[in-house]
Amino acid sequence: MNPIPELIPMLKQLRLSGILDSLEARNRQAIEEKMAYTDFLAMLVQDEVARRTQRKFAMRIRRANFRNQKTLEDFDFTFNPAINRGQILDLATCRFMDEKAGVLIVGPCGTGKSHIAQALGHCAVRLGYEVLFTTQTKMLGQLHAARATNSYDRRLNALAKVDLLIIDDFGLKPLRSPQDEDIHDLIGERYERCATIITSNLDLNEWTDAFPNKLLGSATIDRIRHGAYCVVLDGNSYRAAKPLQKSLKNEVAKTPKKAKN
Predict the structure, then answer these.
(1) pLDDT tens-digit readout, 191-228
(2) Are the beta carbons of 167 and 128 closer than 8 angstroms?
(3) How many CA atoms lie within 13 A of 197 on its CB side?
(4) What Å distances lie between residue 238 and 121, 151, 168, 218, CA to CA?
(5) How far is 208 from 160, CA to CA, in rounded Å?
(6) Whole-number percent of the chain with pLDDT over 70
(7) What percent of the chain has pLDDT over 90?
(8) What is the DSSP annotation of 60-114?
(9) Interior CA angle at 196 toward 154 and 112, to 5°?
């Protein structure tokens, strides 16, 4: 007599319906290998734990809102040998998460700032942390919209409490009031409570220039830099245009120029 039809509603009631995905295959395996009942049960439980772990991981990845799935495994350190690989691999252990410290990644456009920031976020997700990736423009736009719907405090609180907040492209656009106050309040709420990664094209000594209120900017940057790890990237751009193929070069050369009127 097959007990599986009777098990289905009970497993669903216990929220263990995932076991059904492998139950028949594991049952055949247990029979063929003459497993003890406890070994068979342990195998089913291990399958369910693995499924739930993977499901939680996928959910954290979705909530992280990464621009794309960038990891350290696919980062080309050989392209720019000057990049401190050891420092970045040390950060990948996420020790800075336990320290509630910041990570500041600065350098010219195309040197891999966003890739490394997202890769470190991916490492944090693997370790079970909640991560949110955003840009300065998007984050401040959401806070501005929240003001209009009287949900500003709730939105600010959500940003303040996430385990790891990654703010990309800081200072790309100059801040306006009350954006500088929003940044100040957010950093103040996260200071020594949660880890924050910030990327910027500006040198660190130029960060206060992004604030219209220099006193507010100085206080904000002072908190951002306190105890933070600084990663300075330099070298060639990963976004450099590919050279034209010879055939395409010839076609461009042969294209007649339009006569001037």
Answers:
(1) 999 999 999 999 999 999 999 999 999 999 999 999 99
(2) no
(3) 30
(4) 20, 40, 17, 32
(5) 21
(6) 90
(7) 66
(8) HHHHHT-SS---GGG--TTTSTTS-HHHHHHHTTTHHHHHT-EEEEE-STTSSHH
(9) 125
Amino acid in the structure at residue 2: N
The full 3-state SS of 149-196, as one line of letters, equals CCCHHHHHHHHHHCCEEEEECCCCCCCCCCHHHHHHHHHHHHCCCCEE
Nearby residues of 10 by Cβ (< 8 Å), 6 or more positions away: none
Please, which residues bridge with residue 137 across strands?
A: none
The residues that bridge with 167 in the sheet, in sequence order, are: 134, 198
Those residues with Cβ within 8 angstroms of residue 227's Cβ, 6 or more apart along the chain or in another chain: 99, 101, 102, 192
| Residue 41 in tokens | 């049960």
Three-state secondary structure call for residue 11:
helix
> 89-93, 209-213, 218-222, 237-241: which has the minimum mean pLDDT?
237-241
Residue type, 191: Y
Give the other-Cβ count within 10 Å of 124's Cβ: 23
Please check the confidence at residue 5 and state whether its pLDDT lies above 50: yes
The two beta strands, 102-106 and 195-200, are parallel
Token pair of 98, please? 């336990």
CA 94 from centroid of its chain's CA atoms: 13
| CA–CA gap between residue 211 and residue 198 (Å, rounded) | 16
Taking the C-alpha atoms of residue 162 and residue 189, their distance in angstroms, rounded to an integer, is 11
